[in-house]
Design brief:
The protein is an alpha/beta fold. The protein contains 23 helices and 25 strands. A hairpin with a 2-residue loop joins strand 22 and strand 23. The longest helix has 19 residues. A 6-stranded mixed beta sheet has the order 5-4-16-15-14-6, with helices on one face. Strands 21-23-22-25-20-24 form a 6-stranded mixed beta sheet. A 5-stranded parallel beta sheet has the order 10-9-8-11-12, with helices on both faces. The structure holds iron/sulfur cluster. The site of iron/sulfur cluster has 13 residues, from loops.
Length: about 700
């Protein structure tokens, strides 16, 4: 007998993408029968998202309703990392975590506990609330370096502030330069606005990158450089602008600190000089400079990628200087943009417990979790060992550099680890207690756009599966057991959102809920710095004082004294040597976002397997054929994966798109086995695209 199947009732709700991507897309989510997620689309009426999102989030139902979601708290029953766990009740699990933290604290002091988190969700409640617990309990501080520090510092070094022209102005530009980011893969909206400028105004799109990725293919001019040489390219472009009379001298005199010194300096930084460093032909550099010269209304969209080198801070600063030489900042559709972090002026005292900060408590470097857990004295700031971890929203076993040390550290028998996660990640597998976490459509949170200017609400749309609890619930439940007191622990998620909005000058939750988002775009003069840059004298800095760039860092690290005085190619990268003749970068794969989406079948199928791209002539010299198994190695370790012969890289450059789980490699050693945890000057960071290696056929 035919049975009539009732189609589900579909409601469309607004949300925001919580993932670690500057686009923070405004979403329209299908909710089926009030309990399941259907299709996810970009919100048409959000002027930045403009109806477009990436494929991996469009198929989010695959992730949120995945059969491998963690549903119940678990306690370890076998050796660390064995994957042997047994169910435990929430109360027993939280009691145990609290007891272990208290015992550790009694033995070593509060700094032995290290709350460790990152951007698995970018929600201001769910990502940052763990800081409230650490501040109140005086646990070791978390210096979050792994992503933004080099890029942000480099940008702020010039402008004085992390903000720039309205990203929607890309559509009003005559030339959009997409530098060190691959928006065809992620933060797709950059392409939306750049392509609109091309269609409506005949704008040119220039892409600068280290391999021929989707964005480079879509550009009118692809500028292919060796990793870590962007500073040389920027200097050569400025050389051409001065040489050919396209430097805006009036603008330079009024708005910049040292224009004549810069001109004299880049006089020797010719396209020929830059070509030798970057590997990019002189003609391409000249063509790039000519586009900027002829199209003053050029918008430089500067991404994070080229910050992930030991000279990444200096390179970001150098790239941002071109717009000042040309005077592009003064025009609508012109200038340089990296991130809008400075426009939101949050009061985070309730979400993060800033009122409870004790500045005498040590800060530990997130990127150096391997050396920290291995007990290296400098990583521990010569203090007590870390013997207890609470981890939310991150998967350091996979994503942190110097992976062999990370693994050794997590395997320590005297380390107690609690991981609150959505899936049994490789970090969760090393835990003593695993707690099941909600996903973004299962809790209330709010978000700020880095790549745009909206505050957005991401409300709870469906109930979580099993016994999943959100980060705020877990932090508050632990605080209660640990005797930590703060008003933020007694507030609901919605109360925290409302309080933060009100105390930051952004209205109320009710207003945000009614309007879905708040457009925080500063006026033209502020965004374009036409009344001066954000320094006391109002001048853009070609000569930054690297030691005083205003950035949230407790210390200076790396060879700060050797940083270039003026924009330059800084030879501090892991340059190739006869023993290690290749330079390896670990660029993001299209279907993963760090290690998120490692679990979804479509992402795994589309990425196929871990590979490394190698130039055909390099491969031929080494007897490597397409699909061959190869080993990459350096002083940090070895990694086995498959070769992909690809002529879209410079000779001597290898690209391993990432991040695959370690288990996808035949011996369980992931790509971060090869990356270094030494800190980038001046404020830290990990040089994921700056690794010298050898390669051979297996
Ligand atoms: S482009 Fe970025 S912000 Fe937009 S949906 Fe994809 S991951 Fe999320």
């Amino acid at each position: 007998m035919n049975q009539l199947v009732r189609p589900p009732e579909v409601e469309i709700h607004a949300s925001a993408c919580p993932h670690d991507c500057p686009s923070t897309c405004a979403l329209e989510v299908e909710v089926l029968d009030g309990r399941a997620i259907g299709r996810v689309r970009g919100a048409e009426d959000n002027l930045y998202t403009a109806g477009v999102i990436c494929a991996k989030v469009a198929r989010y139902a695959e992730r949120i309703h995945h059969p491998d979601r963690l549903l119940h708290p678990l306690i370890r029953k076998g050796p660390k990392g064995s994957g042997q766990f047994a169910p435990i009740s929430w109360d027993d699990a939280l009691d145990l975590v609290a007891e272990k933290f208290l015992v550790a604290e009694a033995r070593y002091g509060s700094e032995t506990v290290w709350p460790y988190y990152y951007a698995g969700t970018m929600g201001l409640i769910m990502r940052d609330g763990i800081n409230r617990l650490r501040h109140v309990k005086r646990y070791s501080g978390f210096h979050s370096t792994i992503c933004v520090n080099p890029a942000w510092t480099g940008f702020i070094a010039g402008t004085g502030k992390l903000a720039g022209p309205d990203p929607r102005e890309m559509a009003k530009s005559d030339c959009v330069v997409i530098w060190g980011t691959n928006p065809v893969n992620t933060q797709v909206n950059v392409m939306t606005h750049a392509v609109r400028a091309r269609k409506e105004r005949g704008a040119k799109i220039v892409a600068v990158d280290i391999y021929m990725n989707g964005t480079m293919e879509a550009a009118d001019l692809a500028v292919l450089v060796r990793p870590g040489t962007d500073g040389a390219l920027a200097c050569a472009v400025m050389h051409c602008l001065f040489r050919d009379g396209f430097a805006d001298r009036e603008y330079l005199e009024k708005y910049t600190d040292a224009p004549r010194e810069l001109e004299e300096h880049v006089c020797t930084r010719s396209p020929e000089w830059a070509s030798r460093i970057t590997g990019c032909p002189v003609e391409t550099i000249e063509e790039f400079a000519k586009l900027v010269a002829e199209r003053k209304r050029t918008y430089f969209r500067l991404g994070y990628g080229f910050g992930r080198s030991r000279n990444g801070t200096a390179n970001m600063h150098a790239a941002s200087c071109i717009a000042a030489v040309r005077g592009s900042w003064a025009l609508e559709g012109g200038g340089a943009f990296h991130n809008n972090g400075a426009i939101y002026h949050w009061n985070k005292s309730m979400t993060e417990g800033h009122d409870a900060i004790d500045p005498s408590i040590r800060m530990l470097d997130q990127s150096r979790i391997g050396p920290v857990l291995c007990g290296e004295p400098d990583a521990l700031i010569n203090g007590v060992p870390v013997t207890a971890l609470l981890i939310q929203n991150t998967n350091p076993m996979s994503v942190a550099p110097e992976q062999d040390k990370v693994k050794r550290g997590f395997a320590r028998e005297d380390l107690f680890t609690c991981v609150h996660e959505q899936f049994m990640t490789e970090t969760a597998q090393m835990a003593d207690v695993v707690l099941p976490a909600t996903m973004f459509m299962e809790h209330d949170d709010f978000y700020q756009g880095g790549g745009h200017q909206y505050i957005q609400l991401g409300p709870k749309l469906i109930d979580p599966p099993g016994e999943c609890r959100n980060n705020h619930e877990v932090v508050c439940a632990l605080a209660k057991r640990l005797g930590a007191s703060h008003p933020g622990f007694t507030m609901t998620e919605r109360e925290l959102i409302d309080w933060t909005l009100q105390n930051s000058g952004w209205g109320t939750l009710a207003v945000l809920e009614a309007n879905k988002w708040i457009d925080c775009q500063p006026d033209f003069a502020t965004a374009h710095y036409t009344k001066g840059f954000a320094w006391p004298d109002g001048k853009f800095r070609f000569k930054p004082d690297w030691k005083t760039v205003p950035f949230r860092s407790p210390w200076l690290v790396g060879p700060v004294d050797d940083m270039p005085v003026l924009p330059d190619h800084w030879e501090v990268i892991e340059e190739a040597t006869p023993e290690h003749p290749f330079r390896l970068a670990t660029s993001p794969a299209r279907n993963f976002l760090n290690s998120t989406f490692n679990e979804t079948p479509t992402s795994l199928a589309r990425e196929h397997r871990p590979t490394v791209m190698i130039h055909p002539q390099d491969a031929a010299k080494l007897g490597i054929a397409d699909g061959d198994k190869v080993i990459l190695g350096n002083t940090r370790g070895e990694v086995r994966l498959h070769a992909k012969i690809f002529d879209g890289v410079r000779r001597g450059v290898l690209i391993a798109e990432s991040i695959w789980p370690n288990s996808a490699y035949e011996d369980g050693r992931g790509i971060n086995t090869l990356t270094g945890a030494d800190a980038i000057a001046p404020y830290g960071g990990a040089a994921f695209h700056d690794n010298r290696v050898w390669v051979k056929r297996l």
